[in-house]
Structures are given as structure tokens and as C-alpha cells.
Amino acid sequence: QVHLVESGGGLARPGEFLTLSCVASEKIEIMGWFRQAPGKQRELIASITRFLTGVVAPSVEDRFAINRDNTENSILLQMNNLRPEDSAVYYCAADEQTLSVGTPAYWGQGTLVTVSS
Question: Whole-angstrom Cα distance, residue 5 to residue 40?
């Protein structure tokens, strides 16, 4: 069982930035971030393999970036120029095969991001 611990959520004003962190209890192939806003479907925002191949959703790729530190089994989601529509609960997820098909095997508890003036 892989445990994922997230940190870094909170309140930001439009145009500001936040960095989310997720640490896994052991090595795992793919880690990434989903988000879910009230009344909306969960969406995959970014993922990165242990070979450091990262993918960011087109809807945020001009503002968000994902990085990984394999020595610490951790990933960061750098979110720049935040918008109110980025407000959501952000979930770290991990799997040995994929995050984009089916349901990832492992989930963090979620961290709330609120973007408001």
C-alpha cells in the first residue's frame, strides 16, 4: 500500500501562485494530480513518470508545471497565475501503470485550493 501525503493548498488571489507537494511512502511509476471543483467532474491535471516524463493538461499547461524528485519519492505542482476557476480540491494520485485510464490505485486525501480576491 502506497501512502500519499499532500501539502501546499490554501488561499490565493487571482494572479498569484501556489505550489502543491506530494510525497509517496515508496517508489512508484507514475504520480500526478487531479482536481475536482464542486459540481464538476474530476479531471487529471498533470502526471509524471519516474523517468521524469511529464504531461500537463492543455487547459493549464501555460500556467502549471509538474516536477518530480525520485530521491524523495515526491512531486511538485507549480501553479502560476491562478484564476478563480482553479479553485478545487487537488488530489495526488499514483499508479504503477497509468493515471489517465481507469482509477489510479493510490490517492492522497486532497488539499483545498481557493482562488479569490
Answer: 24
